[in-house]
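User: structure tokens for this one?
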Amino acid sequence: MKKLILGSFALLMFSASMLIFQISCKKSAEAESPMPAVPVQINKVAFTRYSQNGGTEICVMNYDGTGLVKVPVQLGANQSITDEVRLSPDGRKVFFVLYTPGTNETKKEDIYSCDIDGKNQKKIYGMPDGGGNTILGGAY
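Assistant:
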């Protein structure tokens, strides 16, 4: 009889400890930050077009062709925009490639980014001199 009472007491204590453990795990799981939201679809497309002065410019518009906006990009001496242009997943930044001509050893295609309004332009990748072509992939 004593073993039966001790066994029952041990099972009761084990059950109580499991219940306390589950409650504490639930509270810590609720305290964790929620999963990040699915990125909002931006429904915009970025592209390059030839401007009236013979250069290339970056434009952004809605998927239906409305809301066309030119992104003002600052070019250095002899630099030009290649056909490589992408939007960030949130639609706030534009990524593009600037070509700087030169000899086979000095020509470059560097990757730049800027806000959709052309502000905060900065080089994010500097190709080694004579490094070949730079082709942008998708932004994730």
